[in-house]
Give the backbone structure.
Amino acid sequence: MRFSTPLKLNHVFQRLYHKGNVCACRTLVLYSRRNHLKQNRVGITTGKKLGRAVVRNRIRRRLREVYRLNEPRFQPGYDIVVVARHHAADVGFSTLQADYLHAAEKLGLLRELDK
């Protein structure tokens, strides 16, 4: 992630959960809020209900990769938290990517790229 940093502080996660914009899909829930910085901060959460550590880590790696591949499409200056749902363990990468980008588009996080 060239233009982003990881989001690790608990109070920032809590602020996003309570005051951020939210969009839910079948495989994930996306929270976002402006951070008044020149870069995005991205956090990923996977609960124990998803499965053992191997499954949770695989889901986190996939979500990080979706963001990394599409990072130029995201507008800078947002805190983003992705909460994986139970179905995220069962779907393929393309479905996970489609849900992620659909939620980001609904929240207005994507920008128009020059064609």
